[in-house]
Amino acid sequence: MMLEIVSREELKGKMDRGEAFTLVETLAEVAYQHEHLPGAINLPPDRVKELALRLLPDKGAEIIVYCASPT
Q1: Which of 1, 21, 26 is nearest to 11 (CA)?
Q2: Which of 26, 55, 58, 66 is least enclosed by beta carbons within 10 angstroms?
Q3: Global pTM?
Q4: Tens of pLDDT along 1-40?
Q5: Which residue, among 42, 71, 67, has the nearest Cα to 56 in the 3D structure?
């Protein structure tokens, strides 16, 4: 498994080009319902064990995970 940081600009480029990846927001469901990036699925930290296998079945897929920060 390889982990790398994807900048906002890189993510926008991937989205604009229609690249295949799964976008995952890791905030609580209430935050996801309030606002999230287009196409993102919600995987709250307290439900990872319950939902991860169902929401992310392809172990070879590119997955981009995001959450919130003050910046």
Answers
A1: 21
A2: 58
A3: 0.87
A4: 788 999 999 999 999 999 999 999 999 999 999 999 999 9
A5: 42
